[in-house]
Amino acid sequence: MEKIFNKKIKEIMTKDIIYSSPDEGVIKAFEILLKHKISCLPIVDADKKIMGIITTTDIGYNLIIDKYTIDTKVSDVMTKKVISVNPENTILDAINKMDEFGYSKEIINQLPVVEEDNKLVGIISDGDIIRVLSKSLKK
């Protein structure tokens, strides 16, 4: 089991990332999240450097209570303090961050994977980790 936890994030991360620019409208961003059945959307600049992140839960809740207008931009509502990992980190590093930086009793479900220059190169989710664990238990 220790071998699994020491596996590099780059070996299991999703590399085909769906992301948004900070100028995207919140309603359009919510549509992107729902269309692709994903729960978070990294926000990047023109060089793909991470600037923030938004989640389906955050946007959906605020849309329901009419907190946003048609003109609300992603940059107005994104979380700017993004917890991320490096492709060379291990699965255990990701698990620890997901636990440590979650709010209250929650965990973070996805972590953007960034290179040293803060450029987005992937995303790792709790589902990615569970899939690796499940496959290793079947062997």
UniProtKB/TrEMBL annotation:
Q: Which PROSITE patterns match?
A: CBS
Please verify whether the record's keywords include Repeat: yes
CDD domains, per the entry: CBS_pair_Euryarchaeota
Domain of life according to the entry: Archaea
Q: Keywords on this record?
A: CBS domain, Repeat
Designated name of the protein: CBS domain containing protein
Annotated ranges, domain CBS? 13-72, 78-139
Pfam families in UniProt: CBS
